[in-house]
Amino acid sequence: MSNKMWGGRFGESPDAIMEEINASVGFDKRFAPQDIRGSKAHARMLAKQGIIASADADQIVAGLEAIEGEIEAGSFEFSRALEDIHMNIEARLKENIGEPAGRLHTARSRNDQVATDFKLYMRDTVDHLDTQLRALQEALIAKADAHAETVMPGFTHLQTAQPVTFGHHCLAYVEMTARDRGRFADARKRLNESPLGSAALAGTSFPIDRQMTAEALGFDGPTRNSLDAVSDRDFVLETLSAAAITAVHLSRLAEELVIWVTPGFNFVRLPDSLTTGSSIMPQKKNPDAAELVRAKTGRVIGGLTTLLVVMKGLPLAYSKDMQEDKEAAFDALDALSLCIAAMTAMVARLEVNEENMRDAAAKGFSTATDLADWLVRALGLPFRDAHHVTGTLVAKAEAKGCDLDGLTLAEMQEVEPRITDEVYGVLGIDNSVKSRTSFGGTAPDNVRAMAAYWQKALIQETKS
Ligand code: ARG
User: Fold this and answer.
1) Rounded CA gap, 429 and 444, in Å?
2) 110 Cα–ligand 1 center, Å
3) Is residue 278 among the annotated active site residues?
4) Long-range contacts from 5-13, C-beta under 8 angstroms, 24+ separation
5) Do residues 230 and 201 lie in contact, with contact meaning Cβ atoms separated by under 8 Å?
6) Per the omega criterion (within 30 degrees of 0), is the bond before 317 cis?
7) Which of 5, 82, 114 has most ligand 1 atoms within 8 Å of CB, for mutation?
């Protein structure tokens, strides 16, 4: 039997391979709640406009609600022969309520239907991700506040650069996450227009009220161009771009955790419950969750790349290529959601080995810049000369096998005779971080103030 929904002109049923390549219900069944919501809004609008009878609309709405119940209960039978979620639901509606079911698709096409479903789905997903990202920020802020004074080595090139505080490091990720949330919010704002009523591509001759369906579905308004509305997926691309950048941020933190838990660093401990063991090496405690956050970033970036490639050569309006927008997006956004949850758990529960961080921060001539700055401040040297003098002192200490504060005053004066023992004051790591009071700097007071700033910002966000 040819397809019930569009089979009128067809003499034979789709080949098995046609059915297999064509079907999307295996993955777009996720859209069931959105599809039903959209159909209910559409049916009510059709009735209000006198396009279908009110009694038919009532039956359609009640029938759709019953189907929603079946799907929730797991008793709904999805059929691949019916291609996609839209036709599965409509066919079931026909079984349940008969003739009025056939009136639901008036002034509508699967093209505007799927775009509407996907936008509704994206909106929910973005909201969920935002809640998750906020929780991650809260965990990071709490750690930052607790470790405003905990000194660790700051790195550039992964080489010890200058001492920073662990709190400052945590707040760096709070900033990144805030921008990530901003990108999602921005994408959400732009995507919140209703394609419903654009029909196949040209609009419809029926006197529909697109404002009404847009409002019923929580959209800011209807889209202004029917061709655009059914044929662009930039709202998915934009969300996936935000997702990819977020995943990259998470991946960098994941990489740091992986480094920090190695015996060589031993800066933090992850709880047993968020690590795994080795089946052969009994001593191992592996940061698999962090490694997988790092790895799953590939999926997220991959999803974005997939859809960019799918879209790049498509003429207006809809092409079936666009059915390939879903799996990649679902996979990417599911992966991101899991990564945020895992990262939040790790951040909340990690314990800092303060001693090890301090010891590492004191090594590697981390206060050399403080020394150079002192030469500028106390002796009036131009910074370039101070840099050179300090470099010579570092070489001297390296040859002696000590840190900068291991050089005697006499040894220092061999390089620059005007150095006094006041210099030792700037060589300690605590003084170093305390001195970084410039706005945005790592000084503990700054870190506490920034943690408070973010705490307040999140509270205000809740209120507004
Ligand atoms: N399952 C399709 C998709 O996801 C729905 C739209 C199909 N439209 C069409 N004219 N074949 O894109």
Assistant:
1) 12
2) 6
3) yes
4) 5/82, 5/83, 5/87, 5/90, 5/91
5) yes
6) yes
7) 114
Q: Which residues does ligand 1 sit against, CB inside 6 Å?
A: 24, 28, 84, 110-111, 114, 318, 320, 322-323
249 is catalytic: no
Burial (0-12, 13-18, 19+ Cβ within 10 Å), 459: exposed
Q: Residues 222, 197: contact at Cβ < 8 Å? A: yes
Residue ranges of alpha helices (H) inside 261-381 are 288-311, 326-349, 354-362, 368-379
| pTM greater than 0.90 | yes
Helices (H), 74-195: 85-97, 110-146, 166-191
Mutating to test ligand 1, I would choose from 84, 109, 230 the residue with most ligand atoms within 8 A of its C-beta, which is: 84
Where does residue 149 rank: exposed (0-12), middle (13-18), buried (19+ CB within 10 A)? Answer: middle
Q: Which atom of ligand 1 is nearest to the CA of 24?
A: 1
Contacts of 107 (CB under 8 A, 6+ apart): 42, 46, 51, 197, 199, 204, 206, 208
322 Cα nearest atom in ligand 1: 12
Per-residue pLDDT of 17-46, as tens digits, reads 999 999 999 999 999 999 999 999 999 999
pLDDT tens track for 106-161: 999 999 999 999 999 999 999 999 999 999 999 999 999 999 999 999 999 999 99
Of 13, 86, 278, 279, which residue is the catalytic one? 278
Tokens representing residue 407 in the block: 């050089």
Q: Could you tell me which of 399, 411, 442, 459 has the C-alpha nearest to residue 161? A: 442
Chain mean position to CA 233: 19
Q: At a CB cut-off of 8 Å and minimum separation 6, what does 436 contact?
A: 164, 442, 443, 446
Q: Is 282 in contact with 300 (CB distance < 8 Å)?
A: no
